[in-house]
Design brief:
It is built from nine helices and eight strands. By secondary structure, the chain is of the alpha/beta class. Strand 5 and strand 6 form a beta hairpin. The longest helix has 15 residues. The structure holds adenosine-5'-diphosphate and zinc ion. Zinc ion (ZN) binds next to loops.
Length: about 210
């Protein structure tokens, strides 16, 4: 399958991507994760992206498109891919179309995760990542001090503070939400309710591919 997961920050794209990847064996391509890896490794790309990410703004399109182009060249993409957090602007979506046309493998579906802004704010302010194993935990549902899997310390992402979250939402509504209509017009948009349980959402997704 070749799929785009579309939706606001905190809509649950990353969580579903894990389940889809495990079930269908396709590559999970998260531009946010790739950028954070670059930040951590102190690469030139990471340094370029840092100030944008800190404020919740979008990293420039050319940086992102270059990164995606390189990623598509890796062998795991032959079994299909899940794009998570990309495209985020119409320009990125256009570039993606051109890339995929060149490789002769157009998108199957774009899955939109519908969710209210206020649900997002509450989810993201409670989101924590394990410093040791990377597991993502939400304090809305889990009340321990340490990672349930490995006991590691739970850390908050720098951009998961309320003011930055509000900014990320504003950026989403302004720059990314126009893609909903864009893909709907192409006839490949499918919607799902992002507030449902993880398992229910995954069942909805499986139903889209049968
Ligand atoms: P979320 O979806 O939770 O906001 P991501 O992990 O997808 O977070 O992205 C974190 C940050 O990385 C964004 O706020 C933005 O600065 C940058 N980023 C990620 N993907 C893109 C993209 N496709 N275009 C521009 N910036 C991006
Ligand atoms: Zn852990």
């Amino acid at each position: 399958m070749r799929t785009v997961l579309l939706g606001a920050p905190g809509a649950g794209k990353g969580t579903q991507a894990e389940d889809i990847k495990q079930h269908y064996g396709c590559a999970h391509i998260s531009t946010g994760d790739m950028l954070r890896e670059n930040l951590k490794a102190g690469t030139e790309l990471g340094n370029k992206a840092k100030s944008y990410m800190d404020s919740g703004a979008l990293v420039p399109d050319d940086v992102i498109i270059g990164m995606i182009e390189e990623r598509f060249a890796l062998p795991d993409c032959v079994n299909g891919f899940l794009l998570d957090g990309f495209p985020r602007t119409v320009l990125q979506a256009d570039a993606l179309d051109m890339l995929l046309n060149k490789m002769n493998c157009p998108l199957d579906v774009v899955i939109l995760f519908d969710i209210d802004d206020e649900v997002v704010v509450s989810r993201l302010t409670n989101r924590r990542t394990c410093s040791k194993c990377g597991k993502i935990t939400n304090l809305l549902y889990y009340h321990g001090e340490n990672c349930a899997d490995c006991g590691g310390i739970l850390l908050q992402r720098d951009d998961d503070r309320e003011q930055v979250i509000r900014n990320r939402l504003a950026v989403y509504n302004e720059q990314t939400a126009p893609l909903i209509e864009w893909y709907d017009k192409k006839g490949i948009l499918r919607r799902l309710d992002g507030t449902r349980d993880r398992k229910d959402i995954f069942n909805d997704i499986k139903a889209m591919f049968t």
